[in-house]
Design brief:
This protein is mostly helical and 147 residues long. Helices cover 76% and strands 0% of the residues. α1 packs across α2 (32-52) and α3 (72-91) packs antiparallel against α4.
Length: 147
């Protein structure tokens, strides 16, 4: 089961790289924030359809039970989409995606260690720091080492 979930995470990573590239291409044509708006409108329509069709679990009735900070994901989504669409044309897909992943892993290590947002604590280890350092080195090599 864990291997299946790991595969799903890899597919999400693949989708993020393709999505970032598509958003960057759309941003070149219509502009950064118009592209971000279009992406959000399309996502909203598809998500609304999923809610209406009762796909997945959960219920909008429980919306008032969520802590205020959980709604900041919408704000962060705008930052993510705009940041990805802006960085890919300037850095290339591989370098931008690697830098994004370095930021994600660094933040994830902190969230895990502190148990933020009600999540279970996952202790920090030096091997995790080594993995992050190797990942950051890879990002640097992708961006700065020329042929």
């Amino acid at each position: 089961m864990q291997l299946l979930i790991l595969g799903l995470a890899a597919v999400a990573g693949l989708a993020m790289a393709v999505q970032g590239s598509l958003n960057a291409a759309l941003g070149k044509i219509i502009g950064l924030f118009p592209a971000t708006l279009v992406v959000h409108v399309i996502g909203t329509v598809l998500t609304a359809a999923a809610v209406i069709l009762h796909l997945g679990n959960g219920s909008l009735v429980k919306i008032v039970a969520a802590p205020w900070y959980t709604y900041l994901g919408g704000v962060l989504n705008v930052i993510i989409i705009a940041g990805v669409a802006m960085s890919i044309p300037r850095l290339g897909v591989a370098s931008a995606t690697t830098a994004i992943i370095v930021g994600q892993v660094l933040t994830a290590l902190c969230i895990d260690h502190l148990g933020c947002f009600g999540l279970d604590k996952v202790p920090f280890t030096w091997t995790k720091l080594l993995g992050l350092a190797l990942l950051a080195t890879g990002a640097w090599l992708l961006l700065y080492v020329k042929k």
